[in-house]
Write the structure tokens for this entry.
Amino acid sequence: MTAASYALIPEPVRIQPRTDSFTLTPDTTVAVDPGAGRAGAAWQRLVGHAPNTATTAGADVRITIDPAGLPAHGYRLTVDCDHIQVVGADSAGAFYGVQTLAQLMPTSLLADERRSWPVHVPGVRIVDHPRVSWRGVMLDVARHFMPKEFVLRLLDLLALHKLNVLHLHLTDDQGWRIEIPGYPRLTEIGAWRPETVIGHDTALEEWDLRYDGQPHGGFYTAAELREIVAYAADRFITVVPEVDMPGHMQAAIAAYPELGNGLAKPEVRRRWNVSTQVLNLTEPTVRFCLDVLDEVLRIFPSEFIHCGGDEVPRDEWRASFAVQERMRTLGLSDEDALQTWFTGRIADFLAESGRRLVGWDEILAAGPVPKGTVVMPWRGGQAVDAALRSGSDVVLTPAEHLYLNYNQSMDVHAEPLAIGGYVPLETVHAFDLPASGHVLGAQAQLWTEYINSPGLAEYMLFPRLCAFADTVWRPGGAYPDFLRSLRVHVTRLDALGVGYRPLDT
Ligand code: ACM
């Protein structure tokens, strides 16, 4: 065996090939430290039986915890002819060690087929750890609702690639996807649109647009969201919820027109691009936002709560006498200052609950943001520079590298209709993390304007998410090495039934 022949994604920090192998049978004894329960559960899902002995000393397979000599979330994995040993620096590290094992095992185990014994696990020594703590994926479930079952399946796929944040974009102009007590119309009305624009929605006049006449919608109950959160936590994934405000709020305004400025027809948006309908930011409207966040905080234990802040057109605020009057009362010089004031209110509210606001880079447009806020720069190098200069913590989300809703081929006519852009596999892999103590990590985005099914979502996510996982776990890997591993790794995706875009030959 050579190091490359293991074809692990993400590639581990250190890998030492061995020539022997471990023979796994139903009689193999398996012991798991009490602190590594979730790693033990992952082992059980993989091989089909529970750990069967209490004492690690004599067991054939040992999953233990020992922080000595390992960075946070790191692990050591040794497979030889006598043992499989996973030693995690902590419980997450032990879990990642088992995920590496999942890739070393025959793909039939991933496929959940009837297992045939014995199973040969190739010998190896690996020492591994992640470089950054935020290795995320954003899924937009607002533009097209994605069933809970798909979200759970995606969590399994994230875990296999050692990704650890699922950012759920829960609300937007075209749909509201979370039940909020006291505001039933958010889901009765806001979760549904009567129809959707057909084809590419460029900035055409309204009379040029055609619609499909098909109602679209859906939402998650609190119980369903709690199930997603728990399923994720079992896999060391944090679910970061996003309620986008004060723009991207047309669905909420359709449900409760008093939140808006009364300048446009209240309806859940049927087309894409950016709506000019925004919150009016009266005191009752701010109260509404805090009520929504109260419920969000009850459901999601995440330290990080995303409140959007992107793409807030100033048109309505400029045109509204009431908003201008409020700005004067608050002593705010312009509309930018109004957004900053609002961002501060939301950040303070979250801080009182020990949580931290996350926002897209537009929240920096009008001055400093409260301490503890996390910025996601998505609009190119200048936004990254501004975010890094702001002194806030940063999660990099650059469109030009990490928007997986962009085209993955130049031959757009051979691809499903996409929003535009060009982010092929190699461009995702070429993403590099700047060295800064303020960079928590990075995140790939899947906006779903043009992605109307789980199958299409998988096609856009994979294999680009494999490239992202490789580069965010251990930056600086060579693309040809990744590609060589990927040619083997797709057999794992095949076993899991992932509808990935076939590799270019
Ligand atoms: C964004 O793409 N509007 C964050």
About this structure: Residues 310-311, 360, 378 surround acetamide (CB under 6 Å).
